[in-house]
């Protein structure tokens, strides 16, 4: 087995790890029914993107990726706040946080 | 195996296993704890990438604030174990997993090909290889000069979100009856 891939950690390793994490988040969004777990999967995807930004930032030698990560984190926190508020209102009405109840949310 | 390589593989395995547990465990409280574990793992990966300040912010904002929000809402709901944790839509779960796997394969393949082009130009730049203090200082300077409008917009966004979340949660169907 080629030991170079194991010993020399480079950009590729971080990018593949981020891709796998993104895939997990997407599978969670597609497969789960619980709204809270759906939101958690979205957070997983955002985190994998953050990892990509930081990895590129290091290996290209520019700091702008760090700023993008700041912005992504803020948006993620905002998204969590609004998503959980929606989950609270769904739970209050239907006593469950299943994604299928969101079709009742038309005004 | 060098210390760097060992650290990376250890963190990668921790992150992937806890990330997989987030979507596979049917009890939401366990999912959220696994997500917190993933956040801590990613924060440690940021440290291995010399992004010390971002690693700290990740720990405080994600592993601290956002996860507390999730756990608090789950406790508020008093949810039972989901009996049907996974959706049954028009497409079966196997089709969805296969399509996600195909996309992941495409992404990983594209990365593996494009990185061959990128690595020729990339070097460990002294800018990010410096100490944590220097990076943090430069980060602050960029944030308050080049990205100042984005920063201001984020402030407005957070205000709007705070008001909107309160308005959503207290209107009809919130935790309080009117």
TrEMBL record, chain A:
A Pfam family annotated for this UniProt entry: Oxidored_q2
Catalytic activity: a quinone + NADH + 5 H(+)(in) = a quinol + NAD(+) + 4 H(+)(out)
Described function: NDH-1 shuttles electrons from NADH, via FMN and iron-sulfur (Fe-S) centers, to quinones in the respiratory chain. The immediate electron acceptor for the enzyme in this species is believed to be ubiquinone. Couples the redox reaction to proton translocation (for every two electrons transferred, four hydrogen ions are translocated across the cytoplasmic membrane), and thus conserves the redox energy in a proton gradient.
HAMAP family assigned to the protein according to its UniProt record, in alphabetical order: NDH1_NuoK (MF_01456)
Alphabetized GO MF terms: NADH dehydrogenase (quinone) (non-electrogenic) activity; quinone binding
Principal location listed in the UniProt entry: membrane
PANTHER family named among the record's database cross-references: NADH DEHYDROGENASE SUBUNIT 4L-RELATED, NADH-UBIQUINONE OXIDOREDUCTASE SUBUNIT ND4L
Subunit structure: NDH-1 is composed of 14 different subunits. Subunits NuoA, H, J, K, L, M, N constitute the membrane sector of the complex.
Protein's UniProt name: NADH-quinone oxidoreductase subunit K
Cited InterPro entries: NADH_UbQ_OxRdtase_chain4L/K, NUOK/Mnh_C1-like
Top-rank EC class of the record's enzyme: translocase
Membrane-spanning segments: 12-31, 36-56, 68-91
Membrane topology: Multi-pass membrane protein
Keywords: Cell membrane, Membrane, NAD, Quinone, Translocase, Transmembrane, Transmembrane helix, Transport, Ubiquinone
From TrEMBL, chain B:
GO CC terms, sorted: plasma membrane
Function as written in the Swiss-Prot or TrEMBL entry: NDH-1 shuttles electrons from NADH, via FMN and iron-sulfur (Fe-S) centers, to quinones in the respiratory chain. Couples the redox reaction to proton translocation (for every two electrons transferred, four hydrogen ions are translocated across the cytoplasmic membrane), and thus conserves the redox energy in a proton gradient.
GO molecular function, one term: quinone binding
Protein's cellular compartments: Cell membrane
Enzyme's top EC category: translocase
Keywords: Cell membrane, Membrane, NAD, Quinone, Transmembrane, Transmembrane helix
Topology in the lipid bilayer: Multi-pass membrane protein
Bilayer-spanning residue ranges: 6-26, 33-53, 59-77, 97-118, 147-169
Organism: Bdellovibrio bacteriovorus
Reaction(s) catalysed (UniProt annotation): a quinone + NADH + 5 H(+)(in) = a quinol + NAD(+) + 4 H(+)(out)
Lineage: Bacteria, Pseudomonadati, Bdellovibrionota, Bdellovibrionia, Bdellovibrionales
Protein name (record): NADH-quinone oxidoreductase subunit J
Major site of localization recorded for this protein: membrane
Membrane keyword on record: yes
Family: Belongs to the complex I subunit 6 family.
Pfam family, one: Oxidored_q3
EC number: 7.1.1.-
């Amino acid at each position: 087995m080629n030991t170079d891939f194991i010993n020399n950690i480079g950009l590729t390793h971080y990018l593949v790890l981020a891709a796998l994490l993104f895939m997990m988040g997407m599978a969670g969004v597609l497969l789960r029914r619980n709204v809270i777990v759906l939101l958690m999967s979205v957070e997983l995807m955002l985190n994998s993107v953050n990892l990509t930004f930081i990895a590129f930032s290091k290996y290209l030698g520019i700091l702008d990726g760090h700023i993008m990560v700041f912005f992504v984190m803020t948006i993620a926190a905002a998204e969590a706040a609004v998503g959980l508020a929606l989950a609270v209102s769904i739970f209050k009405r239907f006593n469950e946080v299943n994604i299928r109840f969101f079709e009742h949310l038309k005004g | 195996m060098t210390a760097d390589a060992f650290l990376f593989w250890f963190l990668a395995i921790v992150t992937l296993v806890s990330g997989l547990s987030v979507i596979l465990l049917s009890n939401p409280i366990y999912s959220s704890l696994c997500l917190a574990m993933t956040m801590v793992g990613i924060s440690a990966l940021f440290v291995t990438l010399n992004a010390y300040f971002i690693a700290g912010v990740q720990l405080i904002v994600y592993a601290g604030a956002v996860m507390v929000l999730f756990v608090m809402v789950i406790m508020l709901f008093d949810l039972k174990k989901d009996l049907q944790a996974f959706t049954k839509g028009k497409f079966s779960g196997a089709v969805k997993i296969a399509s996600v796997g195909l996309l992941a394969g495409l992404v990983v393949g594209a990365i593996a090909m494009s990185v061959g082009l990128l690595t020729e130009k990339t070097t460990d730049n002294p800018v990010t290889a410096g100490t944590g203090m220097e990076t943090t200082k430069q980060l602050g300077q960029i944030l308050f000069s080049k990205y100042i409008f984005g920063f201001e917009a984020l402030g407005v966004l957070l205000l709007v979100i705070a008001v909107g979340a309160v308005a959503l949660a207290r209107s009809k169907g919130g935790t309080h009856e009117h």
